[in-house]
Design a protein that fits this description.
By secondary structure, the protein is α/β, with parallel strands linked by helices. Helix content is 54%, strand content 17%. It has eleven helices and eight strands. It binds erythose-4-phosphate. Erythose-4-phosphate (E4P) binds next to helix 7.
Length: 217
């Protein structure tokens, strides 16, 4: 299972990269704005900064909603760095653009996916990744994990190569449940990765080992 971090914060990306468990980064326009990154040139430079920190795929989202605009933007993003994955919204023009980029060998991430039918379309269009937003479904009292399980079953039934990128992960239990279901990737905040480290018995056990070592020396 790949671990992506869902942020545009360079310090947090470095922190996860330094742990040695990071496989990539996802961003979106809201995450960029949160870091105060605005304007085309600054945004493009920030993508490059991210690519220079991590070894894996970096999703960069288009803001056009028509296929021509998405293709123009996506081509510029893909030309920026080999690690860039063009992130496209799950709308009809997004699917057309996804098909275009697949045929050119450019990696894509179809985002804002909230149903199995949408995930099926993304796979048919040759998406590299599909991003079901499980946290946002949970927010409206709908079982987000069930959607991940449905997509897993559909993709396995037909051998689709599209990777399930469970997005809108909010906490460690989401990460563990995604792993149990067989999600290919999860993207979440640094806290969802670092939270996996924690267990009180580990802390108690380590303190005892160190205390006993001191007694014997
Ligand atoms: C996915 O790529 C999105 O950037 C993200 O996971 C959305 O998460 P949120 O629902 O916590 O905003």
């Amino acid at each position: 299972m790949k671990f992506f971090i869902d942020t545009a914060n360079l310090d947090q990306i470095k922190e996860a990269q330094d742990m040695g468990v990071l496989d990539g980064v996802t961003t979106n326009p809201s995450l960029m704005a949160k870091e105060g990154i605005t304007g085309h040139d600054n945004i493009m430079k920030h993508y490059l900064d991210i690519c220079n920190i991590v070894d894996g795929d970096v999703s960069a989202e288009v803001i056009s909603t028509d296929v021509e605009g998405m293709i123009k933007e996506g081509e510029a993003l893909a030309a920026l760095h080999e690690q860039i994955v063009v992130k496209l919204p799950m709308i009809k023009d997004g699917i057309k653009a996804c098909k275009y980029f697949s045929s050119k060998g450019i990696k894509t991430n179809v985002t804002l996916v909230f149903s199995a039918g949408q995930a099926l379309l993304a796979a048919k269009a040759g998406a590299t990744y599909v991003s079901p937003f499980l946290g946002r479904l949970d927010d409206i009292s709908t079982d987000g994990l069930n959607l991940i399980a449905e997509i897993r079953q559909i993709y396995d039934n037909y051998g689709f190569g599209t990777q399930i990128l469970s997005a809108s992960v909010r906490h460690t239990m989401h990460v563990i449940d995604c792993a149990k279901i067989g999600s290919d990737v999860m993207t979440g905040p640094l806290s969802s990765i670092e939270g996996l480290l924690k267990h009180p018995l580990t802390d108690i056990g380590l303190a005892k080992f160190l205390e006993d070592y001191k007694k014997g020396n």
